[in-house]
Amino acid sequence: MYANGNQPIIVLKEGTERTKDKEAQFNNIAAAKAVADAVRSTLGPKGMDKMLVNTIGDVVITNDGVTILKEIEVQHPAAKMVVEVAKTQDNECGDGTTTAVVLAGELLKQSEELIDAKIHPTVITNGFRMAANKAVEILNGIAVDASKDEILKKVAVTSLTGKAVGEEYESLAEIVVKAAKSVAEDGKVDTDNIRIEKKVGGVIGDTYLVEGVVIDKELVHPRMPKRMEHAKIALFVAPLEVKKTEFDAQIQITDPAAMSAFLAEEENSMKAIVDKIKEVGANVVFTSKGVDELVQHYLAKAGILGYRRLKQSDVEAIAKATGGSIVGSVMEITKKDLGTAGLVEEKQIGEDGMAFITRCKNPKAMTIFVRGGTEHVLEEVERALNDAVRTVGITLEDKKVVAGGGAPEIELGLRLAEYASSVGGREQLAIEKFAKAMEIIPWTLAENAGIDSIDSIIKLKNAHEKKKDGKYYGLDLSSGEAVDMLKLNVVEPLKVKVQAINAAEEVANMVLRIDDVIAARRAPPPAPPGPRGMPGGMPGMG
Fold it and tell me: Which stretches does DSSP call E strand in 297-449?
């Protein structure tokens, strides 16, 4: 900037970068499209996987959209906004992350032509908002009731298909549905109560459901029994040891008799802990803190199983499965606080011992015990099962599903195009672009399956306009034909689609409304240490 006397006025700090108007908008759109392109090839059952290697050489192999975007550490601020869409979608629904990101990228791509045609971003964002609201209304109209168990299994199979579970998706889907129904309370499913424990060994087909809890811990003492039927379980978040003082204390003992008395008193305190546990009738003890060696000895002598240093989430899961109460002090436990299980046993899985708490009366915590050949396989199966559990959970709550295979997106594209002509004004152009953007999902599904995308879109549009139940017709990725997805058992929760469209619309509108980017200069990286740890070394050295 220049004042009247042609003297420059410096407003921004030196080194600050500023981009304005179209340049800023197109830069942001390009960054968002780059994020969408990064995950686009993973969409659908025929999508490919990504291998991600971090700075220390750890490898992640996945086709889960949100995992990819979290791992690649995006730097551009507009791109970060798109990554947030994936995280929100994952938190809300557990699935549909790639769909949400690809839709956001396509909405921004379609808006470029409108910006070039000098249509104001506010008009575009208004049109997109109207289109998203209409899209949700249309989706609710084409949704199908999902209160029957067979629909839940179809949802799970659809979620697992194309993930790294091989041909085991049928058996895994049954496990997921059974677990979700078991932990459901008042029509709500807290998916945190379905735990996934994994151990290298065997194959994916060896995965099974434990109606209870599995803890990756071994007994604290080798002389303890490995198995306890009719278990009465005490749960503590307190150490089973003599309480230490909160400040440093030093005790000086000069008399040997006093020393013996001191040690005897400490031993009696330990014995009192075990006596209290025996008194209330507990024969299994779990604590999130430590267990003193003397207490371990007395527990083993009394035939009581003991496990220590559990995670807080583990203790809470055991409480939910067994009906027990978590106690903060050993001496305050009562018989009412004890949980019950038909069996607690330690099993040797590979080289490690693991505690299995099973045969619980009405367990509200279940464990899917996953097996697989390598750590990378196990991690991807865990991600797939997490997605399936979440999708089945929200289907149990909403009891609504839509057809998969790109069917709802094609229906939305056609119906939104009709709606656009009834709106009028410049918003009509934005709604038409929104309708066009919907086609990116079936287009990408076809592309990833090696099918001609243009032919596929034409077949789908014909089916939707001419068939009796055309709104349910999606793309069969094996034959490339338009098929009724409900008959093909390909269904997805309604909430996944609604959330994906709303999230994509919101982030697209946010990016479009930015017309000025002011970026401060980044701080230079610190100089490497010189001799004797001095930054940059001594002057004149080097």
Answer: 305-307, 326-327, 339-349, 352-358, 366-372, 400-403
143 CA to centre of own chain = 25
Domain 212-362 coded CATH 3.20.10.10 = no
Question: pLDDT exceeding 70 applies to what percent of the chain?
Answer: 87
Q: Rounded to an integer, what distance in angstroms lies between the CA atom of residue 379 and that of residue 76? A: 28
Long-range contacts at 45-54 (CB < 8 A, ≥ 24 apart): 45/161, 45/162, 45/449, 45/477, 46/162, 46/445, 46/448, 46/449, 46/450, 46/477, 47/98, 47/162, 47/448, 48/448, 49/164
Beta strands at 144-145 and 326-327: parallel, antiparallel or unpaired: unpaired
CB 46 within 8 A of CB 162: yes
For 147-211+365-398, CATH gives 3.30.260.10
Where in the chain are all domains bearing CATH 1.10.560.10? Answer: 19-144+403-517
- The answer to whether 155 and 494 are in contact (CB under 8 A) is no
Closest CA to 286 of 314, 266, 251: 314
Q: What is the DSSP letter of 219?
A: -
Kindly report, as residue ranges, where domains of CATH 3.30.260.10 are found in the chain.
147-211+365-398
Tokens linked to 107? 């909405």
Q: Rounded to two decimals, what is the model's pTM?
A: 0.79
Amino acid at 529: P
345 contacts: CB under 8 Å, gap ≥ 6: 226, 227, 228, 355, 356, 358
3-state secondary structure of 241: coil
Contacts of 441 (CB under 8 A, 6+ apart): 43, 99, 102, 103, 406, 409
Q: What is the pLDDT of residues 400-443, one digit of tens each?
A: 999 988 899 999 999 999 999 888 788 899 999 999 999 999 99
* Residue 170: half-sphere exposure toward Cβ, Cα within 13 Å: 2
d(CA 511, CA 360): 52
The widest CA-to-CA distance across the chain, in whole angstroms, is 101
| Residue found under tokens 């594209």 | 413
Pairing of strands 305-307, 516-519: unpaired
Report d(CA 318, CA 340) in Å as an integer. Answer: 10
The reported pLDDT for the residue numbered 258 is: 59
Domain 19-144+403-517, second-level architecture: Orthogonal Bundle (1.10)
How many whole angstroms separate alpha carbon 43 and alpha carbon 506?
21
CATH 3.50.7.10 range(s) for the chain read 212-362
- Catalytically active residues are 64, 97-98, 387
